[in-house]
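Dock nicotinamide-adenine-dinucleotide; give full complex structure.
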Amino acid sequence: MDMKFNRRNFIKSSAAAASLLPTFNVLGKVAETIGPKEDDVNVAVIGYGAEGEILTDAAMKIPGVRFKAVCDIWEYRRKMAKGRLRSLGHDVNVYEDYRELLATEDKNIECCIVATPDWMHAEITRACLEAGKHVYCEKEMSNRLDQARDMVLAQRETGKLLQIGHQRRSNPRYVHAIENVIRKHQVLGRVTHAYGQWNRSVAPFLTVRDRLKIPVETLQKYGYENMEQFLNWRWFAKYGGGPMVDLGSHQIDLFFWAWDCTPISVTAVGGKDYYNREMNDNVMAIYEFKTKQGVVNRAYYQVLTTSSRGAFYEQFMGEYGSLTISEIAERGNTVQRETYTGEEGKLKWNKFIDMGLMMPVREPVKAYTQASNVALDVRVTAAADGNALPVDLLKPAHMPHLENFFDAVRKDTQLSCPADLAYESAVAVLAANRSVAEGKTIHFKPEDFHV
Ligand SMILES: NC(=O)c1ccc[n+]([C@@H]2O[C@H](COP(=O)([O-])OP(=O)(O)OC[C@H]3O[C@@H](n4cnc5c(N)ncnc54)[C@H](O)[C@@H]3O)[C@@H](O)[C@H]2O)c1
């Protein structure tokens, strides 16, 4: 009997069902092992480094996402990808060159996740889009503005989806904080100032054991001078934008979102003060935004690589109160009232609490351990003198953004960070490095943010 292979009749057979023991992924949820279904989405990942692995792990938790191919120029990472994905039920072909992947897997994949170093995003994204694939590409769009621009153009020319990896745009905690608390209900009143920081401890250049090194001819074929530059690409102008672009890209984007406008200037200072590496190891930047109401608000951003004091979080400071938030809820999840608002302000504030926009801080629970990349129960996180945001994200931080992407692929829903939106913050982020280099304020015109 010619029995069509589908989910229902496959499970009917008890012998077959016995062989279908679910595999569990790292965070303990059941991974999809029963295949293929009509709404399966077949995916390739290009660049399986630290972030490629995080994205792949998160995407594998989304029902129906099937990895078919992986590309990485590093054999060590290709082997790792093949083993890890197979153990989680995804049998992938591996490639060294993305062009070969696209040519060979053309019929097998609909989407590509691009997580190579920044300098390759534009070339690879354009090639994937032109091959008819939807693309999820990591931030920063590029370390060069002309290339970020080309990504927007490639998206428009092909009509395919292009999501940029500013994952806070899909994070329900950030959506609640910015859309509901700040914008819709104006709990903080006018937010005159914002602040963001990402501070890290001193760290030496990355190295690997000799047996893992890529032959120099392979490195040079793909444009890397040597293993040191390949591993530490963020610190070299050819491949990345330094800490300012690497980390600032996430957080400066939030100022755009909260104020719903683009900046009019950036003034930044920074230096190669500690390491004497090619890119600045610390940058402090002040952005001026002119809102649609015609008022000027200012945001201060700092990135340090010589002290982890305060780690990473963002703050929105308004006339009635302030909101502190971090991707790791433990590091920021508080809304605090300005006491000057008195009894009347307190009553209003309590109304916002009754509406569920924030909640009273409860007794701290001590029993949590922090699994990497997973935000914690928000009840433990608010400062004692504030209210907590009442939204949890008990899944990997990148997962909602990937879900948003795959929803758009399947159901034609809206992307939360399409290329033209991400381009706006790329303009501002890249300009901070220019302001440091030129020692002057960079003034923006509205048209600078449009392609
Ligand atoms: N959204 C986030 O939270 C987040 C976090 C970290 C990194 N990122 C972004 O992800 C990207 C990758 O960063 P990472 O930390 O994983 O770097 P990484 O150095 O750990 O990994 C990069 C991988 O890309 C591979 N690669 C390099 N050139 C390639 C090419 N031409 N073709 C195919 N593979 C190639 C490398 O071999 C390596 O495995 C960057 O754009 C970075 O900004 C985003």
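Observed: The chain has two domains: 23-168, 171-204+243-395+421-449.
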